[in-house]
Amino acid sequence: MSITHASFVTLPVADQDRALRFYRDVLGFEVVADLGMPAGRWLQVAPVGAQTAFTLAGPGMGDFEAGSARGIMFVTTDVDADCARLAGAGVAVRGPEEQPWGRMASFADPDGNGLMLLTEKEGF
Length: 124
What we know:
Elements (H helix, E strand, L loop, with lengths): L7 E5 L3 H11 L3 E8 L2 E7 L6 E5 L14 E4 L3 H10 L4 E7 L2 E7 L5 E7 L4
Parallel strand pairs: 1-4, 5-8
Antiparallel strand pairs: 2-3, 3-4, 6-7, 7-8
């Protein structure tokens, strides 16, 4: 096997513009693709410098149910500061809590996709 990384992760959303505002303006992701396609809009965002993008798949872009993604883990250098920023933007955040592998919290995007933040413990 010669797999090097995931190209993208699909996040099913009901409203791509609303999702874009969340991922760009709240999480600080950059737009890496915004193209018209025959089936709909191909919209991808990613953390600055990341190899893996997140496709904000709206209606017509596959057999996805908005808000059905779970377990997407974002690694951060400061989970506490990021949680405070999310809360300041009106996002409901659970945590952060100390775990054996690091300090983590969970939250959801406007469609209910389940997301997590993790500051990894050294050595993990």
